[in-house]
Each structure stands twice: as structure tokens, then as C-alpha cells.
Write a structure and sequence with these properties.
Layout lengths: L2 E4 L14 E4 L6 H6 L22 E5 H5 L7 H5 L5 E4 L9 E4 L10 E2 L2 E4 L2 E2 L6 E2 L9 E7 L4 H4 L6 E6 L7 E9 L3 E12 L2 E12 L8 E13 L4 E16 L6 H6 L8 H4 L2 E18 L2 E17 L4 E24 L2 E23 L5 E24 L4 E18 L9 E19 L2 E12 L22 E13 L4 E13 L2 E5 L5 E5 L2 E16 L2 E16 L19 E10 L5 E9 L2 E2 L7 E2 L2 E15 L2 E10 L7 E4 L9 E3 L4 E9 L1
Amino acid sequence: MKFRYLSTALYLGAAMPGVVLAQPTSAPSSPRAQAQAQPVIEVTAPRLSRELYATPAAVSVVERDEIQQGQQRVRLDESLATVPGLFLQNRDNFAQGQRVSIRGFGARAPFGVRGITVVVDGIPYTLPDGQAQLDAIDLDSAERIEVIRGPAAVQYGNAAGGVISVTTADGSDDPGSHIRIEGGSDGYRKASVSNGGVNGPWSHHVSVSALAVDGYRDHSSTEKYLLNAKLRRELGSDRALTAIVNLLDNPRSEDPGGLTREQVHEDRDRAGAFTEEYDTGQSVDQQVLGLQYEDLSAGPGEFYLKGFYLKRDFEQQLPYPGDSLIDYNRDYYGASAEYHQTLSVGDMPLRYVAGLDLARQKDDRGRKNVAFNGDVTDKVADETQTATSVGTFLQGDLDLTERWTLSLGGRYDRVDLDIDDDYLSDGDNSGDRTFHQWSGSAGLSYRYRRHHQVYVNTGTTYETPTFSEFANPAGIGGFNPDIEPQKSWNREIGLRGNFDNGLDYDVALFSVRVRDELVPYEGDDGRTFYENAGDSDRDGIELALGWQFDPSWRIDSALTLASYEFDSYEDQTGNDFDGNRIPGLPEQTWVNRLTWQGLDRRFAALETQYVGDMVADNANDVHVGDYWLVNLRGGDGWRLGGDTVLKLYGGVRNLFDVEHYANVRINASNDRYFEPAPGRTVYAGIGVDF
């Protein structure tokens, strides 16, 4: 029997990462029978094995069907739309990358990811200094995406205001070959090929894709090639070795830049100032290698050992004259070791994991001047940035009774940041900073019925500024001496469960207090700098409901209502922003999805998305209105003989052609806050499975 898996937003009794709920593709004859046929399954989580209704945390799990069925599989927002508490911007500017925020963490970054830990197949894509990129995630081979909606520093250390963990296929769950060819609006073209299978103790999966987009706006094209491969060798019944290879070639992604509101009204698809003159954009060449060993019978417990190496070559032209051409060559490597064991304390079962994480990042960075006429002139910076992190953690779950579970965890991290200045014509601007940080968490779970749970938890996190955020606005290089890490304290109450009539629910109330909030601002030359904003508050409720009211029909709804405010903040020029909203964050989002699964491979999904209003600056003078979007997708498939299946699918994004912004640049200089989003776009694809 085939199974498909439902995420927390789709099946709202989801568990800690790795704990999923299974339901047959061929649905039972009634919603009641279907609900009763959904067994709770306990599997090994990335850092601790937990059963669904003993997990004191808000976690969403998105499975393969949601990631791939009728989707373009280009950006994460397609897959994570129904995860409450999470907000994504910047789908269309590949040079800047998607901005991801979870409960307000990560919103400050104008590019890349901050405040959120990103893990792919156990490899941390978040660097020791706290930044991450999403451009190498292969959604064509993704089997599952797990989102921890809240602080998880005990498990992951620096920049763990939330966690996105992606697991790709290994060939055992989806054997065979797949070919996809897609096309659509704004010159969208994509082709992908994958193959996976099992041969005795060996299993493999290889995915290759090529993407090209002309772009909705002027000067916004991109070209990207991606390979993701996994090879696994079983070394007996309890041991295995897995090798992972991920290759990214992004020879060109153009950056159309930000616009003023007046420019948007005149011409939404125009490029910003200097973008075409200076040919703004980026190029990336990255290789990732990973090797992982597991032994499920290491003494009385289980042992996991992982190692990785990442090489990234990067160049970017920014949209202003001056020191705007930057490049770096990055070497990033590390290892982790974990030991899991189950034992008894008296007559109470205790499950724990103890681990050690090591990582080192070395960036050889340069910066060159670009004259007003666009000519590249002299070098203005040449430095080596090195970040080293060491973390050790211990986390355990104690079953006090059959209904009550107590969870406790602690972690110690040391993060060393060092800059060696090799450009000495303006003096030696070398420097170093070292941070020592303890993080803790505690949670209590009560299963008041078999498939219903209430939990509470609390935890602390910290987040160092990244190297780019340490940039000195005084222009003398080295570290900005006036900036410090931000720290937070999270409290959460959650309630979730499912009824026999096919109705399921997930409710989480959260309150986060942040000290020394890191906030960006743009200097007169267009460069982004950072400062600590005092204290801020994040409070809200996340609600997700799902109802399988018919064997073929399901409706899901995910609502987030929150308040993100500066509690006390006076900037460097003396402006008082106490009580102002934190920019770049909507305080209300609401996603609804109606899904129909017909006979065999026929399907359709209608989705509505509401994004509330937001502000774009600390002073709250620049307002961005709310908007509704409607998306539609569907498809069908036919067996051509044997194991060969032909699939046709397509979709419409922004069905009613609503004008809105794909990205809002926070505290932008010269009023260039806005990056317009496309209107109505369509795409279609054809696939062959064999």
C-alpha cells in the first residue's frame, strides 16, 4: 500500500522532526474510518527520537507530495506556505535570495538567512557566524522539510531562532527514473532528471536540474544548475555509511534592485538605479561533500558521526559607485557526533542524546572600487575572515507517567570570530571577538487523550552578528566595536490533536523577549550596517486546522496573529522608536487550501494567501499595504504500460493579478524600499516516470 504524509499545517498533529503521520493514498470509505487509520509513528528525529504526543514544541513537517505535486520546486515558499508562524519574501530576486522569518527571527536580513538554522541531510548550511544561503537546496529530490517554529539553540547553537531541516531522497522510498520539463511566464524554463534505486546493501539517488528565468523586472534574469546525490551502503543490520554530494553552478543572477514608491507607480517592471549600468548581480560556484556513519547498536545505545566540507566561490556587484564589487572564496568544514540511549530512572523511561558540534569557516574576501562610469578600478579591501564554533549539548525526555513527559536540555557554545587584514595601505584593521554562551530549554507534555496533547516549554537562544553585520560604519575596517550579540527568552504553550471525524488542530501561543535586537540601516553610500536596538517583544498565536471531510476532499487553514515591537530602542542619532513595530514583518498571515485528490493521479488545489500590512523602516513612516493572493494548480497522469507513467500538470500564481511587493528592503537609503512582484503568472510541465 502506498502512503502519503501530511505536514503539521496539513495534518496538524505533526510531531518533532522525524515524527510523521501516515495515511493511505486510497482513502478509507469515510472521514471517521480515515482518521482511525492514521497510526502515530515514532522515528528517529535529527537530535532526539520522540513520539508525537510527548513533544513539547511547535514543529511542522512537510512531506514529498506537498513539495512536488504540481509545484515548480524552485523556491521554499511553495512548500512552506501552510506552515504557521513562518513568512517568506523575495521569491523573484535570485541574486538576493529568499528572506525567511520564523516568529520574527530572520526578518532583518536584506539578503541570505539570519537567525534561522538551515540543515540539509544533516549538513549545517548555517555558518558558524550565523548566516546561511538557500540556493543549493534541491527541492526536486526533497523527501521532507521539517520546521521547528521557535528557538532551538540547545540543539543547534548560534542563530537557532527557528530551524528548517531538509531531507532528500536516498533511492529506497522512490526507486526509478523521473524526467520533468517545465515552462511558463517571464521566460521560465526548467528541466530535471533523477534516478534512484536499491541494489542489495546499496541504495542511491541522483538529481540534476537546470533552471533559467528571464524575470518579471528588467535586469532580473537567472541561470542555475544543480546536482544532488546520495549513496548509502548498509554495513549489516545496524550500521550504515552515507555519502552526499551537492554541486551548485549559478553563473549569473541579475539584481534589479529596489525602487521608490513613485518609481513603482510609474513602471513596476523597471530596474533600480545603477543596476543595468553596473550589471548588478552575483555568480556562485559551490560544492558540498558529506560523509555520515551510523551504528544503531553501539553498546546500549546508538552512535552517529557526520563530517562535511563546503567550498563556495562568490562574486557580487552592488548597485552603487564606490567599493561595490565584492568577492570571496569560502572553505567551510566541520563534524558532529551524537550518542542516543534509552534507560530507566527508577521505573521511569529516560531517552537522551549527548552531542558535540565542530565547525570552521574561512573566507578570503576582497572588495574593489567601481567608478561612476562603471569601470572597475583599484582594490580597497583584502582580508581573511575566520569563524570557529565548538558546541556540546545534552537533551533528555523523562516519562513521568504514561501521560506526562518532562524534557530538559542544555548547551555550551564557544564562537571565535577573527579578521586578518591583508590590505595595509589604510592601516592594519585586523581584529577578533570571542563569545561564550550557555543555552537551556525545559518542556512539559501532557497527553490528555490518546491523540490529544497540551504542552509548555521555555528556552533561551543567542545570535552573534555575522561578519557582514560586523562591518564598521566608521569605514576603518575590522569589527564594529559598538555591536553585540542578541539574546532571547522564549515561552510557549501548545495544544494539538485529531478527532475521529477527520478534524485535526494545532494551536501554539508564544512570547519571546529579545535583548540587543540586531537591526539594519543603510548608509549614505547604499551599504548596509547594523546596530543593537535595545529590547523587543514578539507575541502571538499560531493556529492550524485541517478537515478531511470526504475521502477525496481536504481543507486546511493556517493563521498567524502576532505583535512584533521594539520595547526600548534609541538609535545612534537619538531617534526614539520605543513601541514601534519591527519593520519587514506582517503581523497577520492566513493561508487556506482546498485539495481534491481524484482517482489515480488526478488532483487539484486552490490556495488563498493573506499577508497583512507591514512597515519598512524603524520610524514606521513607510507603510506597506496588505494583500490577498489566489493560486491554483492541478494535473493528471496516465500509465503508458509497465512502470511508465506520463504526467501533465500546471498552475497559476496570483490568479487575480494583484499588485504587491515581492520584497521590502528594510531601512533602505534614498527611499528604495520596494521590489515589485509579478502579476498573474502561469506554468506547465510534463513528466515521465519509469
